[in-house]
User: What shape does this take?
Amino acid sequence: MIRLEHVSKVYKTSTRPALDDVSVNVDKGEFVFLIGPSGSGKSTFLRLLLREEVPSKGTLVVADWNVGRLSRRRVPRLRQRIGCVFQDFRLLANKTVAENVAFALEVIGKPRHTIKKVVPEVLELVGLEGKADRMPHELSGGEQQRVAIARAFVNRPLLLLADEPTGNLDPDTSQDIMLLLERINRTGTTVLMATHDHSIVDAMRRRVVELHLGKVVRDDARGVYGVGR
Ligand code: ADP
Ligand code: ADP
Assistant: This one.
């Protein structure tokens, strides 16, 4: 699903590489934690997958796309197949829960009857069936993140990227969100989650890829957050 071969990224304004000769393979259906201190290259990794940045060196393949060489007009097709979830939810404040989810389908031209059918289904999947007509500000943080996950998942992406999705949530709510991401992963969607959350990584025992100064320093199949424990 994701293949990086000797990928480096050097930003124009910077001397040291943000990613430095990174080679990683992620199979379809895997659940991967991407960890590392601030500045280690996690966001750069995610931005490369979305073609928001291009590699300075190396080859990057997502599904069947050679992302580094993708022509500009093919980029939207790639991004349609990747769902994104962020720490700060990024919901549209003037739209209801259902409208936020529907909007993700409208912008890619899905017909109205499909949207009408699919939105309630995905709201049920994330446990928000009673809240379709609420506004984002009427929801708790955990509920807002569920909306964001519903929106990211409603188009059945091949890959779900989550950047610190529990960063603004208390531990119990974070656990609920992780159960939901696991559920989405069980549908076959590959999940890549950048996080600083030790307890979640330690509880889930999934694959852990650790970056440090742009290099992969650890890749454990059933990892924990800290080494040597
Ligand atoms: P992380 O997400 O792990 O905090 P980043 O990928 O944001 O790491 O950053 C990796 C390195 O690249 C850091 O040294 C950061 O300062 C630098 N960097 C990130 N984005 C840019 C940019 N747009 N321009 C220049 N340097 C950047
Ligand atoms: P949490 O303790 O998880 O932050 P809240 O106390 O914020 O949750 O919310 C508890 C419940 O009340 C949620 O189901 C939420 O939808 C509802 N709620 C919160 N704020 C509002 C509001 N301003 N208007 C209507 N319902 C709200």
Remarks:
- The pocket of adenosine-5'-diphosphate (ligand 1) is lined by residues 11, 13-14, 18, 36, 38-44 (CB under 6 Å).
